[in-house]
Amino acid sequence: MAEELRKSVFNEGLITHLSDAFSHEMSSFDKKVFHELVFQQDWEDLALKERMRRITLSMHEVLPADYEEALHILYKVAPTVGGLQGTIFPDYVELYGLNAWEVSIKALAFFTPFSTSEFAVRPFLIQDQKRMLGQMIEWAGDENHHIRRLASEGSRPRLPWGQSVPALKQDPKQTLPILEQLKCDESLYVRKSVANHLNDISYIEKDWMLDVMKSWYGKDSKTDWIVKHACRSLLKKGDPEALSLFGYGDDPGVNVTGLSLQPHVITIGDSINFSFELSVEKNMPLRIEYGIHYVKAKGNRTQKVFMLKNVQAKAGQTLTVTKKHAFKDLSTRKHYSGTHTLSVIVNGVVKAEADFVIE
């Protein structure tokens, strides 16, 4: 997947398009030099972000030396390049615009709707955190939902692929004014970012994050969606406080019976089928999950939890649950032989378990 993404995003087709577009805006643009700068001998070995940076560096060599003149050309070309390919434009601002703050801030806001400037804002946060957080509060009130999302996504404490901002990891509470502005946002795109931001915080300041979630929950349906999505990691871990926020709890009236698992011995690449019955004695919300205790390379085991369903169960109701789980090796998970365990988890509590073997 990563290999396919790398080759499909930053490739010769993009460079040809950029060459044509730059030539249209700049009569002296040298297509041959640009091509040679990008496709050096190590090109095939470069990772995704390394390819992005190579293109950015190459653009700098062939565009006007004056930063604002170069930006003027990039403004014309950026609307023709979208998705991950478009990250080369905010990357240009990240590399060459830190000493031209006001011009660069406008550029980051301009480029983000065509792709995303979330990675490029990180050095600005490091350089002047107070000023940049103030800018993000302003962005959070923008009419464009891409720019509002940039305020939340760019300031995430644990942004995937993003440069670390140590001060935000040490004190993630600083971003609360941004999140407060966005907690009822009309755009799902923005709300997902807010939820992911808060999920980041749950790894750093769990108790504080849960206090904020309690103060938000139950007042607006859009905010409630954020709260549930933000608490997903805590819910998977079976955190009692997070579970109780949504009415989930360990109740003796919840019973899991008839856990059946077939086959009991498999090889890597096979699947198992399992089923069980769940009955309740009273009306209650149920969060039904299952966990696999995977054997790791050194023989130890770690559990990964998977969601089955959320149900508002009625008194006396019995549910029959069936599921198939595959054990194919993935880029994100490699399987090893040994005894594994499947757990049925209801409202954060293990209710039944069964072993199986991968040979």
Automatic annotation (TrEMBL):
A Pfam family assignment: DNA_alkylation
Top-level taxonomic group: Bacteria
Native source species: Priestia megaterium (strain ATCC 12872 / QMB1551)
Protein name: DNA alkylation repair protein
